[in-house]
Task: structure prediction
Amino acid sequence: MNICHLTINTIEYERRIKNQAESSKKSGDSVWIVALGKPGETYEEQDDNFHLWRLITPFYKGGPLKFIHYNLKVFFFLIFKPLEILHCHDLWTIPAAYTLSLMKKFRLVYDAHEYFAGLEIFKKNKIRKKLWMLVERVAIKHVDVLITVSEPIAELYAQKYPKLKNIEVIRNLPKQEVVPENSHNSYFPVTDKKIVLFQGHFRPGRGLMQLIEAISLIDEAYLVLIGGGELEEEIREKIKTLDIQNKVSLIGYLPMEHLITTAARADLGIVLFEPTSLNYTYALPNKFFEYIMAGIPVLASNLETFKDYIDKYKFGLTVDPHDIRAIAQAIKTMISDEKQMKQWRENAQRASKILNWDNESHILLKIYEQTK
Result:
């Protein structure tokens, strides 16, 4: 089969898309990825698992022109190419996919990484939300399969679009990795304190400010923040205001292939999503499963999705993401109990043998097989 993955993001940090492309390539399909390219940047080609095309737009930083320009380029790029399955990642690529579906015959897979009606950004712009929800509602009639990242989000889509019968869950699970026990980590500071790790985008609703304040209350912990984003300057100011420059490091984004081996050298992984929207309430982000694959204990929000996994596999604790003192106490309690930390690590390692892409990929291959 000719399968094209379509994303409006650059491909470097798209673990989900890369895993999907690799799995279908191994099953004998011809796989392409059409991704965002930035003007003036040069790129190394990824690997042999897919053909990669980068469509460059001068409006890559965002705004309406980014979506219009990119979708137009996608349309003209794909209009004469042979397609059997068009796998669209997220709502932002649906305009081009829908327009193509009116003119070409192929199966359309809508991979909704989030519940878009519940996005934080739409809270501030009701007109933008109405426009994008209209796009989704019109295009959904041409969708053959909708894929999303968790059962609760799948249920929300089922309620929103009751006529769409084919809804599947494919989680953001990493590939199975074996982490060397004594590998060197040059990203973390040399310290006798316990390393508390957050990795991911610095966005509102992810408990970052509460986490930084909690760290200011703990002498035994050192916080490492991997990633970047819109809150970075605010985070730096917060660290300076609290005078905890000697307890926190920001080390920027790391190559995706280094994230799990780096996380394995930490003592504790943090996921403090706040229930500020339906999307965050039912999120199952990459970092949660990356910590598990790294074999480290996890402190997560006491939200249903996180709590279900932690209760089942027992690799950490949950906490109210709004309660700074409760976060501080939970971190302090966890890192001070060596025996329990060892048990949590062992449980995470056992869970990683179940919660990995190697086990999850068969769902995707079955979807492709059924859409032939």
About this structure: Residues 156 and 232 are 32 Å apart (CA to CA). DSSP finds 15 helices and 13 strands in the chain. The first strand starts at residue 2 and ends at 6. The chain has a mean pLDDT of 93.
